[in-house]
Amino acid sequence: MTPGAQLESSAGTRGAANANFPLIFELSRAGRRAWSLPQAGVEAPQLDELIPDAYRRAEPARLPEVSERDLVAHFTRLSQRNWAIDVGAYPLGSCTMKYNPKSSEEVARMPGFAQLHPWQDDDSVQGALELLGTLERALCEATGMAKLTFQPAAGAQGELTGLLIMRAFHQANGEARTRVIIPDSAHGTNPASVSLAGYEAQEVPSDERGLVDLDALRAALDDDVAGLMLTNPNTLGLFERDIARIAAALHEVGGLLYYDGANFNSIVGLVRPGDMGFDIVHMNLHKTFATPHGGGGPGSGPLAVSQRLERFLPAPVLHWDGGAERWSWNHDRPDSIGRIHSFHGNFGINVRAYAYLRSLGPEGLRRVAEHAVLNANYLRVRIEDSFPTAYPGICMHEFVSTAKGLKKDKVRALDVAKRLIDYGFHPPTVYFPLVVEEALMIEPTETESKETIDALADALIAIAREASEDASELHDAPHDTPVRRPDEARAARDLRLRWQPASSERAAQRPRAPAP
Fold this sequence. Notes:
By secondary structure, this protein is α/β, with parallel strands linked by helices. It contains 19 helices and 12 strands.
């Protein structure tokens, strides 16, 4: 597929959305309704009996009054203005936007799962608890850990949970350690989580390979270090080859090794964090096990720990009574750090992960990791002449290229990302990690075909050629989106979070296409 073909395939979805349609308030006409309800047939209480005067409006809320037809058309048009993984490629490095199997969605919608209530008695939800118990065993086996909690609602909350467990462990040993070490290429959530947990974040640099500088790490280690947060493969998409030495050095000073599971999808079924020496592991189910991304709804970031940390997990934990052949929630956890999420986590997301795991099995998961690595390396090599990688060599599931070679043409990574939208692709992550100048962080994932990856490579190569021939094409991009390049500084300073009625003069000056 050529870049033009990719663009053509997405244009039909985006074309209608690009028209300058009227706002829903501009469609509003007094007295129109998008609904009608029958009379209840019972006498309703007086308003003043239901709502005290202090909480009643003095006048009706200013809401749009539109027909059902206009309402449906409005929200349909809005939905078409958004890019989605079901529409086209989404090579967003670090965030791993991969396709979600529809079979998993169907399983999660089954009444026996979708209609549960968290206050139900354990005896009435034995099937759901068995599902969680089976999923827990599978995730612990995949990570090499002993026990886990499903409470964290996302990877970042999993980070905080792990660090609170780290603190509880050291406090139980009578120690008040104050520092947690993070690499200079770490995810931004790592230092934030360290601060929230009450620790001081200390950064260690990368070496010339893009890996943790082992000498610098050893120099930073002492008995005040609570632990090290590490992503492996790291944020540059490179496997930490010194991981065994890193783990030994941490454990020698009594620290714990924390595994940020953001990139677990590239090694699942191949190598386990527990076998590398990690003590705490969080997982992003959307990254590795193809559940919906947390930013678009409830997520799940289970946290698994080694046996010596099990007693500190958030309560309650799932328990199997072999004698009674019964699952239950165990609330009797005197050393627990306490709850970090209401009830038991986001069950529907865990159901999707369970369905994905059962459909693939161990060998299928291994192939997923292998294909993710293959796709990334294929794309990396294809665009190497136009966008060289910051650290040469084989990558894992993602890689970080640099657009600094285009600065001679006054083109930056942001220009490349914006122009890529015109070719029908969501841009990659830009300017991260901070250790790479003009960074383009690209992850094709295992769910994209060779044809799509070739189209993405062709588009990037074409954009690099455009930069030298006519940089204005990039400076003015994107050319065919409803919103092109907003003034981000102005948007931050002059933030408008709700619609305000425009004056008749301003409304007349703003051209609008007629409502369909």
